């Protein structure tokens, strides 16, 4: 190759390199400009979103204190409540309300008719929605004590309504009614309550508390919904621990009901829970009398030996493990004990006539206490 050819080749390569460097500069400029534009767009969106959210969270009209009757229907979701509030001019944006409620982890909103105004803050609105039926007088109350069974609760409801206990109990066990309640509270009313061995699907799910009612003749659904809602709220508080222990709401309420039925005012439920868990761990039957009486469908002061012969999956003298479902409603103390039992080595407990509960580690020790405190024959 001649010197001229070498020179021309070098010159061509130099020019080509210069061109590529120029192209690279152009590309870098384009990338930089694009990035700057994107940053500006994101910034504009972010700032705009911030100001929009900030505005949406403020009162619709701080000067307008005119109150308006706003009705929140029974069973309304957070989205549904937000739409009602937006439609009535109480908040600016239902979606913002929904996300604000989730961010704040707010719950416990109640159905009712509220006197609300456009001047109310988001915090004031949420606080009002937790009181229930603002501006209305309570027509009657229903108190559901701890440890009551579904049939007993039906009787309590019947006393406040124009229906008989049998009619109420029948509706509480109606298949379509139960499935409607399952759709309303799917996190607690799962398919487990429809197991073929379950006596009554809603047994144990009507939380013990006092409930206010604001109409003369509420439907059974309107009466039951607050009870299920309360159960749902209580269970939600324990959800993380339930997942850690691989408990479903059904199994938790089942164990809690056994604790509730064996507990007295003087006893530590945590210790009763420990006995049940110790027995389960050693594959011993729970042998708790209330389950036998539940299998018989009776309420008696004493379980007789002949009662123990009933062939029922609820009979914990015949079948190991938990009952198919709850045998009564449990208070939060028993639910807490079911998740956080005391650590003991007890395998037996005995309720004395005075209400005291005595705990034992061995059968011999238990029998000695039984002979000392239970004097009447159990035939």
Main beta-sheet annotation: 2 strands, antiparallel
Amino-to-carboxy terminus distance? 123 Å
> What number is the mean pLDDT?
84
From N to C, what is the helix and strand string? HEHHEHEHHHEHHHHHHEEH
**Class based on secondary structure composition and strand pairing:** mainly alpha
As an assembly, this protein is: single chain
Total separate domains:
3
Number of strands: 6
How much helical structure, as a percent, in the residues?
40-55%
GO cellular component, one term: plasma membrane
Pfam family, one: YceG
Membrane topology: Single-pass membrane protein
Catalytic activity: a peptidoglycan chain = a peptidoglycan chain with N-acetyl-1,6-anhydromuramyl-[peptide] at the reducing end + a peptidoglycan chain with N-acetylglucosamine at the non-reducing end
Write the layout of secondary structure elements.
Layout: H1 3-56, E1 68-72, H2 78-87, H3 94-103, E2 112-116, H4 122-129, E3 140-143, H5 150-160, H6 165-172, H7 175-184, E4 210-213, H8 220-237, H9 239-244, H10 249-262, H11 269-281, H12 289-296, H13 332-339, E5 348-351, E6 357-360, H14 363-373
Antiparallel strand pairs: 1-2, 3-4, 5-6
Helix pairs in contact: 2-3, 5-6, 10-11, 10-13, 11-13
């Amino acid at each position: 190759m001649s010197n001229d050819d070498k020179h021309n080749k070098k010159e061509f390569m130099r020019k080509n390199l210069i061109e590529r460097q120029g192209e690279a500069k152009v590309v870098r400029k384009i990338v930089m400009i694009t990035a700057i534009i994107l940053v500006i767009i994101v910034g504009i969106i972010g700032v705009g979103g911030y100001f929009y959210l900030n505005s949406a969270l403020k009162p619709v009209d701080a000067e307008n204190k005119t109150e308006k009757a706003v009705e929140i229907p029974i069973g309304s979701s957070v989205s549904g409540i937000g739409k009602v509030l937006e439609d009535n001019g109480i908040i600016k944006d239902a979606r913002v309300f929904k996300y604000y409620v989730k961010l704040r982890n707010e719950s416990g909103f109640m159905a009712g008719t509220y006197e609300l105004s456009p001047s109310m803050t988001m915090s004031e609105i949420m606080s009002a929605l937790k009181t229930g039926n603002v501006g209305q007088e309570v027509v009657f109350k229903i108190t559901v004590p701890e440890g009551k069974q579904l049939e007993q609760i039906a009787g309590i409801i019947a006393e406040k309504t124009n229906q008989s206990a049998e009619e109420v109990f029948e509706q509480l066990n109606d298949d379509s009614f139960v499935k409607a309640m399952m759709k309303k509270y799917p996190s607690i009313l799962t398919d487990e309550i429809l197991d073929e061995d379950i006596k009554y699907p809603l047994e144990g799910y009507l939380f013990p508390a006092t409930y206010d009612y604001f109409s003369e003749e509420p439907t059974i659904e309107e009466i039951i919904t607050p009870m299920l809602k309360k159960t749902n709220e209580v269970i939600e508080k324990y959800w993380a621990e339930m997942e850690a222990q691989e408990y479903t709401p059904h199994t938790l309420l089942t164990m809690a009901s056994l604790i509730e039925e064996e507990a007295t005012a003087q006893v530590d439920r945590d210790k009763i829970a420990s006995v049940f868990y110790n027995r389960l761990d050693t594959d011993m039957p729970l042998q708790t009398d209330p389950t036998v009486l539940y299998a018989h469908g009776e309420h008696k002061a004493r379980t007789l030996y002949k009662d123990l012969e009933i062939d029922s999956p609820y009979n914990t003298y015949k079948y190991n493990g938990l009952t198919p479902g709850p045998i009564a409603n449990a208070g939060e103390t028993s639910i807490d004990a079911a998740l956080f039992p005391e650590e003991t080595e007890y395998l037996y407990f005995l309720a004395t006539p005075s209400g005291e509960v005595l705990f034992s580690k061995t059968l011999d020790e238990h029998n000695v206490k039984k002979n000392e405190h239970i004097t009447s024959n159990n035939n």
